[in-house]
Amino acid sequence: MKLARPVYLAGTAITPFIGKGNPAFIMKGHPDFGRKENPSLEEHLTAAVQQLIRTYLPDPSVVDRGYVGNFAGELFCNQGHLGAMVARADPRLEGKGFARLEAACASGGTALVTGVDAIQAGADVVLVAGAEVQTTFRAREGADFLARASHYATERSFDDFTFPAILARRAKAYKETYGATDRDLAHFAVKAFSNANKNPLAHMHAATMTLDRAATASDDNPNFLGNPEVRDHLKVTDCSQVTDGAAAVVLASEKGLEKLSRPRTECAEIRSYGFATNPLGKVTNLLRLDTVAAAVREAMRDAGVGPGDIQVAEVHDCFTIAELLMYEAIGWAEEGKGMELIKSGRTTLEGDIPVNTGGGLIGFGHPVGATGVKQVAEIFRQMKGLCGAYQLPRAIGTGLTANMGGDDRTVVSMVLRNAS
Ligand code: CAA
User: Fold this and answer.
1) What is the pLDDT of residues 265-318, one digit of tens each?
2) Residue ranges per domain, the chain?
3) Which of 17, 242, 315, 407 has the most ligand 1 atoms within 8 A of CB, as the residue to mutate?
4) For residue 67, what pLDDT band results from cuts at 50, 70 and 90?
5) What is the residue with the minimal CA distance to atom 17 of ligand 1?
6) What is the pLDDT of residue 420?
7) Which fold, 2-136+243-264?
8) Ligand 1 center to residue 236 CA distance, Å?
9) How does pLDDT run across 99-158, given as a tens digit for each residue?
10) Which atom of ligand 1 is closest in space to residue 104's alpha carbon?
11) Is 270-418 CATH 3.40.47.10?
12) Do domains 2-136+243-264 and 270-418 have the same CATH topology?
């Protein structure tokens, strides 16, 4: 979508992303186990919105609209109606029009698109948040909730862990067609953990990963799927995390920046977005992410850039195979060559197209509804020099996001430019 009115990203907030494997996450063995609870969905969402207000939105009464990405609040937390939940975060937000958007793992991206559209329609200041809490159930039970992002009637029975199995089917097809190996895919996990180790907000901040461990099935890293058709093609280290967390951003028109007293130079501009959806349960080619390709193509076309212009990117690595296929859908690698790109090191922090600098969904974590919002926040943070130990060592002019719902069924892609 070419934007008729410029839209600026004027500020961002991200809560610590936590879950099993993060030292702050309270579970058996933690000193606070039995004495304190992990933050609830409301607490994560409120923390992100309040942090955004403290840092970038001193007068929240200027907000015209608000949107919240969340996938499964009712299932994991017995809580829906999250638009009205945001209004509890600060009394100055009361009376505003806020709504929740749901598009599986693209819920956050869809909330952002709706926020950008609201500015096209005349709003000047829009708050967009995303949040998810998924650790309230065991991973196997949570997998049933996450399976609601598939065509449940026909795809749920594929495996107890429906989504991991659906993406394992893609890994199997890719390996059989192009000769990729577990070791090739392991490079994505190693990059994710290595970046997360530099990011104090990341779920896997304190966990290390070696190529040998990620490449090899073991008691520590099992092929945990039940379906024998795909079992050998996915290990725990190929998967994104079951994470709790939230993110929030403030979007503004030119007039909105005046209301926020924010100079344009301290912002990023959302140059364009691509938004594409395809029928649930009807993937036609396991070797390609066609919906990602369509959304990214639209976003790049309308921003007037090509794959070679992207200086930093946040892509939806829900599983290692997904990041590989994203490289090809974006146009950085030909079909069948994505593993060469990861192995070249070009997408690491030291490379010329760094991808998922804070750890992505595998390292930073994947609180489903928050992910799309966190992606644009991360591009902003790289552009504005806010990334600390994983800050890229050069000026970043252009960034890209790709946020995917389900098995390549709903995709939002945005091109951002460092405002000057
Ligand atoms: N050998 C064999 N099997 C083993 C094993 C071993 N040594 N250790 C564990 N397992 C099996 C067990 O069966 C276990 O299940 P039960 O305990 O219920 O029997 C299962 O593996 C999982 O083990 P854990 O629950 O101990 O594992 P965990 O809590 O560390 O979770 C994970 C690991 C299952 C990979 C979990 O992180 C996960 O589910 N990740 C993926 C999350 C996901 O799918 N997110 C959505 C992404 S899709 C997307 O982004 C698009 C969209 O719209 C949805």
Assistant:
1) 999 999 999 999 999 999 999 999 999 999 999 999 999 999 999 999 999 999
2) 2-136+243-264, 159-236, 270-418
3) 242
4) very high
5) 140
6) 81
7) Peroxisomal Thiolase; Chain A, domain 1 (3.40.47)
8) 7
9) 999 999 999 999 999 999 999 999 999 999 999 999 999 999 999 999 999 999 999 999
10) 53
11) yes
12) yes
Q: Give the pocket of ligand 1 (CB within 6 Å).
A: 20, 104-105, 138-140, 143, 146, 149, 161, 163-164, 219, 222, 224, 236, 239-242, 318, 366, 404-406
Q: What is the rounded average pLDDT for all residues in the chain?
A: 98
Q: Which of 152, 169, 236, 325 to mutate to test the pocket of ligand 1 (most atoms within 8 A of CB)?
A: 236
Nearest ligand 1 atom, CA 404: 51
Centroid of ligand 1 to alpha carbon of 376 (angstroms): 27
Q: What is the 3-state secondary structure (H, E, C) of the chain?
A: CEEEEEEEEEEEEECCCECCCCCCCCCCCCCCCCCCCCCCHHHHHHHHHHHHHHHHCCCHHHCCEEEEECCCHHHHHCCCCHHHHHCCCCHHHCCCEEEEECECECHHHHHHHHHHHHHHCCCCEEEEEEEECCCCCCHHHHHHHHHHHCCHHHHHHHCCCHHHHHHHHHHHHHHHHHCCCHHHHHHHHHHHHHHHCCCCCCCCCCCCCCHHHHHCCECCECCCCCCCCCHHHCCHHHECCCCEEEEEEEEECHHHHHHHCCCHHHCEEEEEEEEEECCCCCCCCCCCCHHHHHHHHHHHHHHCCCHHHCCEEEECCCEHHHHHHHHHHHCCCCCCCHHHHHHHCCCCCCCCCCECCCCHHHHCCCCHHHHHHHHHHHHHHHHCCCCHHHCCCCCCCEEEEEEEECCCCEEEEEEEEECC
Ligand 1, atom 54: closest residue by C-alpha: 406
